[in-house]
Design goal:
188 residues, mainly alpha
Amino acid sequence: MPRWAVACLVVIPALGNPLHELGHWIGYALAGIPAAFSFNRVLPLAPEGAGLAGVAGGPLASLALAGLGVVVLYRVPRRALVGASLAAVMAYTRLLPYLLFVLGIVSPAQNDEGMIARALGWPLWSVWLPFALAFLGILALAWRGLKVPTAQRLGWFALLFVAYAAAAAVEVLVLDPVWFPGVGGFAR
């Protein structure tokens, strides 16, 4: 496996959560709300609390970066694996929490899409479903665009999922409480 492929398997999954959270931070910054950043959350520091732009910034950043991955996959054939990996990992940043919702491990009302729905006064499904379909569509485009045998493709997407889940677990459960005390951690 080429070195850049190993980098795709290590670097992109490790950056999935920080890039998603950076989207939240940018949303808060655009709304003029100061915020503290960690691997698993961005905590608004202003008395007015969470603004819609900050809450929506994470899922929108994940969606934009997943879309960028699809563009790279289809437009830069020499870096198709990079594009497919970026698309898949950024889709996983939302699809993994959705899986945890379905399994009853995490409450969807306390996650990004639940907070967006609450801020808009909409039912949860009206925010969750379009995002879920968009991320599944991006994952399907990444799957279709990566021109390798099916077994290799399945292995690559599975490895990316495991690498992302492992990186997220280490970031959230180990690094966050140490590097970002009072901000990081799993509970919201």
